[in-house]
Amino acid sequence: MTALAVVLLFVLIGGGGLGSWLYVRSLENDVDKVDAFQGLQDEQRPVRAADSALNFLVVGKDQSEPSDTVSRTDTIMLVHVPHSRDRAQLISIPRDTWTTIPQSLPEDGGGPTKAKINAAYAWGGTPLLVRTIEGFTGVRIDHVVLLDFAGFGKVIDVLGGVDVTVDKPFTPMAVPGRVYQPGVHHMDSVMALDYARQRKQFADGDFSRMRHQQAIIAAVMRDASRKGVLANPAQLNDFLRATAGAVQVDRGLSVFDTVWDLREIRADDLTMLTSPTTGVGMVGDQSVMFPDMAASAKLFAAVKNDKMNDWLAAHPSAVNPN
Question: Where does the Cell envelope-related transcriptional attenuator domain lie (predicted)?
Fold first, then answer.
C-alpha cells in the first residue's frame, strides 16, 4: 500500500466543501509526526532540480503474523507530483532491490554496505531509508509518509469493502479453497490485504505483489469518491478518523496544506510504475532483485527534473494497469 493514497483520500473528501475541509483541519493533530530527516546533512543529499515539483517517499509497514515483533517495510514507493499538481506517478521500488546502504549496523562496522534496500529501515529507521532512497534514485525527498497496513484495513472497512480488479487467478490464504478469477471482485479488508501481501503463488512474485498493491490503492480512492462518503456525516467522520490513524508523516508536512495543494488529483490521475530491474538473482544465500541501472537512471532523472510526461510518452509499456 502507499501512504500518499491516504493523503489523497483526504483530498477526495476535502473537495466536497467547507465542512469537509474543516474536518481535515481538525484531524491535523491526530496524525502522528516522525523525525524522517534527522541527522541528514544537506551537502550529502541530492540537489532539488525542480523546486515546483514534489517527491514523496511512501512506506508501507506490515505486521501480518502474530509472531512478528517488529513492523516490516513491505512497500516502498517514490511518488512524484509535477508542478501542475493535477496528476501523480507512483513508482514501486522492490523491497529486495540490491543496492548500497550508506550505513550498516555497528557490529558490522557501521560503514556503507550492499544489502536489500528495505534493510535500511531495519538498521536506521526512516532517516536511513531516506538516505538510501536518495542515493539510489538521485531524487531529493521532500516529504515522507508511512502507512500501517492494519490501519489501512480499517479505512477499507469503513468503505464497506472495495472493488478490486484481479489480474491473475488468486487463492487467498484467509479463505483456503477459494479462487478469485481475473475480473472485478468486492473485497473486505482481510481479503484486500491478503491480496496485497501474496507473491509466492504468482510466477513473477514481487512484481505481482506490487501491481496488486497499486490496484488496491486505486480501488480505495475510486470507492471513497463513488460511494458518496460526503453525504453521510457519520461515515465521513469514521472514514477520516480511520485515515488519520493509519498514517505517520514527517514533521514538516502539513496535512491540510498538502490536501489543498493536491486537490485536483483523482484516482484516474495516478500512473503506476515499477522501478526497472534486470530480474531476480542470488547474492550468497539471499534472493535479491537487481536494478537495471541504465533504465533506472533515465526514469529517476525524469522524476528529478520534472520531465515525466516526456518519459511516459517514450515508455508507454512501462505503465501498470490500475
Answer: 72-224
Q: Are 134 and 48 in contact (CB under 8 A)?
A: no
Q: Which domain holds residue 306?
A: 3-159+229-318
Query: What are 38-42's contacts with CB under 8 Å, separation 24+?
Result: 38/127, 39/127, 40/127, 40/130, 40/131
What's residue 69's pLDDT?
Answer: 45
Residue 298 falls within a domain, yes or no?
yes
Question: Is 279 among the domain residues?
Answer: yes
Q: Are strands 54-62 and 72-81 parallel, antiparallel or unpaired?
A: antiparallel
Name the strand (E) or helix (H) holding 141.
none
The 3-state DSSP class for residue 134 equals: helix
Residue 145: burial class (beta carbons within 10 Å; 0-12, 13-18, 19+): buried
Average pLDDT, the chain: 86
58: phi then psi, degrees, rounded to nearest 5: -120, 135
**pLDDT of the residue at 250:** 94
Contact 9, 270 (CB under 8 A): no
48: domain CATH number is 3.40.630.190
Residue 261 lies in a domain: yes
Answer whether residue 277 is part of any domain. yes
Strands (E), the chain: 32-34, 54-62, 72-81, 88-92, 98-101, 113-116, 143-148, 162-166, 183-187, 247-250, 270-274, 277-283, 286-291
The domain tally of the chain equals: 1
Is residue 170 a contact partner of residue 198, using CB atoms and an 8 Å limit? yes
Q: What is the pTM of this model?
A: 0.87
Cα–Cα distances (Å) from 97 to 22, 68, 75, in that order, read 41, 22, 12
Q: What local confidence, expressed as pLDDT, does residue 28 receive? A: 77
Q: Give per-residue pLDDT as tens, 139-191.
A: 999 999 888 877 788 889 988 999 999 999 999 988 888 999 999 999 999 99
- The C-alpha atoms of residue 222 and residue 135 are separated, in whole angstroms, by 34
